[in-house]
Design a protein that fits this description.
Length: about 425
C-alpha cells in the first residue's frame, strides 16, 4: 500500500486562494479529522478544526479511487491564501500518522503509475506548467490531452494486424492459406511509413515551439544593434554608445511574437580587431549567430558584414533610418531605427512570418525522445517492408522488425524501459504537482 502524501498544490506566497492536496489510501480519513467530507466530487464549505482550534473556513472536495487525477483517493482543501493559514494546515497534516509531505512531481508520478496518464501526457503537463506563449499553451494541451497516445495506439493496432498476418503465413507455410495476405501487409506498412515519417519531419518545428526560437541581430560596430534590441524589448536591455566595441557579451531578450517564444540576441559588432577582449566577443557573436534559428543582418550605410555570410531565410535590414533617411523598404532590406521606432514593426512582422512558416508543419512530437522513438520505429518498418517483398523464410525477419517497431512505440508512451527517464522528467515538477 502506498503512502498518503500531501502538499501545497498552488503557488507559494500570499494569494486569494491556496489549495492543499492529499492523495493516498488515508486521504479521506485524514481529511475527516478536520471536518466531515462532502459527497464525492462536490464542493462543501467546512470549518477546519484541529485540537479544538479553528484553522480556516474552506471549500473541501473529495475524489474516490479511480476518479481522481492520481487514480487514488484524493482530497483538496481550498483555503484562504495566507501564509499563516497554509502553514497551520500543513503543520496539522504533518502530525497525522501515515501521512508525509509529497516529493517533487509525486502526484503526477502516481497518475502515471496508476495508468491515468501516459509518459507523453506527463511531459505535456510539464510543458503546460512552463508555457509562456499561446503556441506553447496550445501545443502542450494537445499533448496532455493524449494526442500522441491516440496516434500511437492507432499505429500499434496496424502493426499488430500486419504482424498477425505475417505470423499466419509463417505458421501455415506448408499448407494452403485461404488468401494472399501480403498485399494487405504491404498496404499497412506503406501507410504506417507515410504517417511516421511525417511526424519525424515535423518534430523539429514542434521542438522550436516548445523551446522557443533564437534570433541573432548581427552587424558591424555602431550599426545600431543594441539600440534596436532596446526598442524591441521596450526597455534598456543593452548599453548603447557611439564608442565602437561597447557590446562584448551576448545580451538576450525573450519576447512573445504572435504566440511564438523568441529570444533576441544582441551580439558584438563584427570586425577584425587587435583588442583581445573585443576579439573574444566577436568570436562568441559569430558562434551564437551561427547556432541561432534566424539572423537579422543590420547593415550600416555603405558597409556590409564581412565575417559572417547570410543563410537562406535570413533578414537584411538597414540600420539608423532616422539618420540616413530613405523609404521604409530599401531593396530587400527593411530600413529600421531603434531610436525612433521607424521600421521596427515591419521587421517584427517579417521575423514573425519567417518563423511561422517554419512551424507550419509541426507534428505532435515535442521532445527529442519522441523523435528518436518514432525514428527507430520507422527504421524497423523500412526493414520489414523490404523483407516482405523478398518472400520466403525472411518473413520471420519482417515479423521481428514489426515487434521492434511496436516496442519503440511502447517506450514512447512509457510502458516499458523508462525508469531511468523518470527521475529527470519529474525533477522539473514543483512540489504539489
Amino acid at each position: 500500500m502506498s503512502d498518503t502524501i500531501f502538499a501545497l498544490a498552488s503557488a507559494r506566497g500570499k494569494a486569494g486562494l491556496s489549495v492543499v492536496r492529499l492523495s493516498g489510501p488515508k486521504a479521506h480519513d485524514a481529511a475527516r479529522l478536520f471536518a466531515p467530507l462532502p459527497a464525492m466530487r462536490q464542493a462543501g464549505l467546512r470549518r477546519l478544526m484541529w485540537n479544538g482550534a479553528l484553522l480556516d473556513e474552506a471549500l473541501v472536495l473529495a475524489f474516490g479511487k479511480g476518479a481522481s487525477f492520481t487514480g487514488e483517493d484524493v482530497v483538496e482543501l481550498h483555503l484562504h491564501g495566507s501564509r499563516a493559514v497554509v502553514a497551520a494546515v500543513i503543520a496539522a497534516l504533518s502530525e497525522i500518522p501515515g501521512l508525509r509531505p509529497a516529493e517533487a512531481g509525486e502526484f503526477t508520478r502516481r497518475a502515471l503509475e496508476n495508468g491515468c496518464l501516459d509518459l507523453t501526457q506527463v511531459e505535456g503537463l510539464a510543458d503546460l506548467i512552463d508555457a509562456e506563449t499561446e503556441a506553447q499553451r496550445v501545443q502542450s494541451l494537445r499533448v496532455l490531452s493524449g494526442a500522441i497516445g491516440e496516434r500511437v495506439r492507432d499505429w500499434r493496432g496496424k502493426m499488430i494486424r500486419a504482424a498477425a498476418l505475417l505470423e499466419a503465413t509463417i505458421d501455415f507455410a506448408d499448407e494452403d492459406v485461404p488468401e494472399d495476405v501480403l498485399p494487405e501487409v504491404r498496404a499497412l506498412l506503406d501507410g504506417l511509413l507515410v504517417a511516421l515519417r511525417a511526424e519525424v519531419a515535423g518534430a523539429a518545428a514542434s521542438e522550436r515551439i516548445r523551446d522557443g526560437f533564437e534570433v541573432a541581430i548581427v552587424g558591424r560596430p555602431n550599426a545600431g544593434k543594441s539600440t534596436l534590441l532596446n526598442s524591441l524589448a521596450g526597455r534598456n536591455a543593452a548599453i548603447t554608445s557611439e564608442v565602437a566595441g561597447t557590446t562584448r557579451d551576448v545580451i538576450e531578450v525573450r519576447m512573445d511574437l504572435q504566440g511564438l517564444a523568441v529570444t533576441f540576441l544582441d551580439t558584438a559588432g563584427l570586425r577584425e580587431t587587435d583588442d583581445l577582449v573585443e576579439a573574444l566577443g566577436v568570436s562568441l557573436a559569430i558562434e551564437r549567430a551561427q547556432k541561432a534559428d534566424l539572423r537579422v543582418f543590420l547593415q550600416s550605410e555603405g558597409a556590409d558584414v564581412e565575417l559572417l555570410e547570410p543563410q537562406d531565410g535570413d533578414i537584411l535590414a538597414m540600420g539608423k533610418a532616422d539618420i540616413f533617411g530613405g523609404c521604409a523598404i530599401h531593396g530587400d532590406a527593411i530600413r529600421v531605427s531603434g531610436r525612433t521606432g521607424e521600421g521596427v514593426s515591419a521587421l517584427i512582422q517579417r521575423i514573425t512570418e519567417v518563423l511561422s512558416q517554419r512551424v507550419a508543419g509541426a507534428s505532435v512530437l515535442t521532445r527529442e525522445r519522441h523523435r528518436i522513438a518514432i525514428a527507430e520505429a520507422v527504421r524497423a518498418l523500412e526493414i520489414a517492408r523490404i523483407e516482405v517483398d523478398k518472400l520466403g523464410p525472411v518473413l520471420e525477419i519482417a515479423s521481428e522488425e514489426l515487434r521492434i517497431a511496436s516496442r519503440a512505440l511502447q517506450i514512447l508512451l512509457g510502458e516499458i524501459d523508462v525508469e531511468t527517464l523518470l527521475g529527470e522528467i519529474f525533477s522539473s515538477f514543483c512540489i504539489g504537482k
